[in-house]
Design goal:
By secondary structure, the chain is an all-alpha fold. About 75% of the residues lie in helices and about 0% in strands. It contains 15 helices and no strands. The longest helix has about 45 residues. It starts with 5 loop residues before the first helix and ends in a 6-residue tail after the last helix.
Length: about 325
């Protein structure tokens, strides 16, 4: 259909090897409206998806560690929510800072390139001729012709130099700190929203106390429900990354699920191993004797016992 985004139709034609469909896409009038058809919210979808992935995987790893360590439900919730909020804030602020720095750096570089064009355009033209002449299929004469054309307008010339010379996308001159701030907020909210999924079963368990549900919801059952909710959400988030990759939707979902499973297994295994090392008996003594220095110190040594024993010859 005509309403289908041009880029999506072009990708579909490429995957199917349909040259006629590709020509139709390029000849259509949708080219003129491609930019306007772009959704304003599309810039934040990536932050939402990857923020959600970090949130759910991180929180589920913490839950798995607490369960592996055989700690109670309260610890699951305290550790889970504390870690989720702390990491969410860190992720959001980090996204804001990195995005702001990227925009500021690009603007500074563009300003420098514009200043150099205004003061020594011959040097900038020579640099671009050298860059184009080094590309396969472009002669020295062809490179000079290209630069002659694109350097007639400084704004256009500088934008092209940003990409070809510096490897940077030209910044939007009207962009302020609000864009990165929105990105950071989206990352934080997505991290917290999806990060709370592994904790839902435990929240319901605590709220339902005491009740018939609470009696049925054993620790294993509650953890199992948490695993199921987390697995479904992870798979869905993995599928949501499909527009940003070339993988099939089901492969993206399974890959994300495997990533989360490995993180959870590692956390569970490490916590279980540490808990086993420091496990105590009913008297509060460690099962591993070497971890009970007080008991060792309080136990008389064999030499002391021998010295205290009465002599057989007396």
């Amino acid at each position: 259909g005509g309403g289908k985004p041009r880029a999506k139709r072009a990708r579909s034609a490429f995957k199917q090897g349909d040259a006629d469909a590709s020509r139709a896409v390029h000849d259509s009038t949708a080219v003129q409206g491609a930019k306007e058809a772009h959704r304003k919210g599309g810039d934040y979808i990536k932050s939402a998806v990857y923020g959600g992935l970090d949130g759910i995987i991180t929180t589920f790893a913490v839950v798995s560690a607490v369960v592996g360590g055989e700690l109670n439900y309260g610890v699951v919730l305290v550790m889970g929510f504390a870690n989720m909020l702390a990491d969410g804030i860190s992720m959001g602020v980090g996204d804001f800072v990195s995005s702001t720095a990227e925009v500021e750096f690009a603007k500074a570089e563009r300003k420098r390139e514009m200043w150099e064009c205004e003061n020594y355009i011959e040097g900038e033209r020579a640099e671009m001729v050298e860059i184009y002449a080094a590309k396969e299929g472009i002669t020295q004469e062809g490179a000079e012709q290209i630069v002659d054309i694109i350097s007639q307008n400084y704004d256009t010339f500088v934008d092209i130099m940003m990409v070809e010379e510096l490897g940077l996308m030209p910044p939007d001159p009207d962009e302020t700190w609000l864009g990165p701030a929105k990105n950071g907020c989206v990352t934080f909210l997505s991290f917290v929203l999806f990060g709370s999924v592994p904790l839902l079963a435990y929240v319901v368990h605590i709220i339902a106390t005491p009740s018939h549900f609470n009696q049925l919801a054993t620790p294993d059952a509650t953890f199992g429900i948490g695993i199921a909710l987390t697995a479904v959400t992870m798979f869905a988030l993995g599928v949501a990354t499909t527009p940003f990759s070339t993988r099939k939707w089901y492969f993206s979902g399974l890959f994300t699920l495997l990533n989360g499973a490995l993180a959870a297994l590692a956390s569970y295994g490490i916590a279980a191993a540490i808990a086993a090392i420091f496990r105590t008996d009913e008297h509060g003594r460690y099962l591993i004797d070497s971890l009970n220095p007080l008991d060792v110190a309080a136990t008389p040594s064999s030499s002391a016992v021998a010295a205290a024993a009465p002599s057989g010859g007396a």
